[in-house]
Specification:
Blueprint: H1 13-28, H2 34-41, H3 45-59, H4 70-183
Length: about 210
């Protein structure tokens, strides 16, 4: 937007501020502020305030709020600037403190993350050892069962062999007895009279003595 005071370069600052206020109101339909008048008319704050007052008196447009005196406005701006500076300093200090705390927390989290990594590695190692022991126990159990099975098979085989050997021994003994019986000649009868046994004489009773 063109500056409303460019066509009136010979006007004094207050007049330029008044003209700028009228032009801004006509253009926007809103009551102009002191800062807008200062920027449009290129005048000081006091000139902008005075020009705004004169425009309001001439036009009959009431300001949305009463204007502050120049000294009070300057004081308010100084207070505002001081408050802003203090708030900025406090903000910067707090931001620095927060950055330090965040850095400390991140360092702490990194330390905890490393501890967690170490614990996870230890857990994985322990799990691996448990799996190895479990596999070893499974192998030992399998071997024990196989050894028991082989032992039972061996015992049965030994029993079967012992029974077979006993049966073979009995059969061999029977064959030996049969062969021995076939080799022994039968006894021949004789014609000699059979001796008779003399009777044994009975012993007489002894005489009893008289009293």
């Amino acid at each position: 937007m063109d500056n409303p005071t460019d066509s009136k370069p010979d006007l004094n600052p207050i007049a330029r501020a008044e003209a700028a206020a009228a032009e801004l109101f006509a253009t926007t339909g809103k009551h102009p502020g002191v800062r807008e008048i200062r920027e449009a008319a290129k005048v000081s704050q006091s000139a902008a305030i005075q020009g705004l007052r004169e425009w309001q008196q001439i036009s009959g447009e009431a300001a949305p709020a009463p204007l502050l005196p120049d000294t009070l406005q300057v004081r308010i701006e100084a207070i505002w600037q001081e408050a802003f500076t203090l708030a900025t300093r406090n903000f910067n200090d707090e931001r620095a403190n927060l950055k330090n705390r965040i850095a400390a927390l991140e360092a702490h989290e990194d330390g905890q993350a490393k501890q967690i990594d170490n614990l996870e590695k230890e857990r994985d190692t322990a799990q691996h050892k448990v799996e190895e022991l479990t596999n070893a126990l499974t192998v030992c159990d399998t071997k024990a069962k196989e050894a028991e099975r082989l032992t039972n098979v061996l015992i049965k085989d030994l029993r079967d062999r012992a029974e077979a050997a006993e049966q073979n021994a009995e059969a061999a003994a029977a064959r030996f007895d049969a062969k021995l019986a076939s080799l022994t000649p039968p006894s021949t009868p004789t014609n000699k009279p059979r001796a008779t046994r003399k009777p044994t004489p009975k012993s007489e009773p002894l005489p009893q003595s008289t009293p």
